[in-house]
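TL;DR need structure tokens for one chain.
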Amino acid sequence: MRHSGLLSAGLSSICLLLHSYYRTSTTASTMPSLIQTAFAIEAVLNVPGIIALIFFPSQTLKNFLASPLPSIELNETAILLARAVGACILGLTPQLLLAYPNTKDAVGKRKIVYWTLGMGEAGLIPLLIWEAFRASDEHKAAGVWAGGFSRKAALMSAANLIPLVLWRAYVFMVKPEWFGGGAEKKKD
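>> reply
TL;DR here they are.
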């Protein structure tokens, strides 16, 4: 129950922050743009992962491990790295919120935020695919999987990142005007 309380508190905090930004950055006649909505959704969806990685790294990692043994012991390095990943996500998530309002400063940050997040995600995809197929020759010959993540977990993680990278590429290449904010008109 402790972790559902943390999740509720985190989601409530983000909702209050977004409400505050929305009230101060838009008028009653303007709604958040699609890109602003995407920033808000992504920020909210990051909260459970941040909480899981920082406060419950062992349980979180056990869902991804190659070994099906429930009693497997995680070493302290793996736990530290999971918390570090959670801290990195925690550090990147406020950037989404800072780029949310329809202020000149926030609009200027949107491309930088999307570029930063997209490059990190694009780098993780090949790394996770490599993880899925990196078993050594002796393990392949024995028919035993010896990766750190299970093959399924590594491939599912990569598959979950692909739509994000494709979305970011679409926005950059096809709809760059979306970075301009919901209250601005498209120039002809």
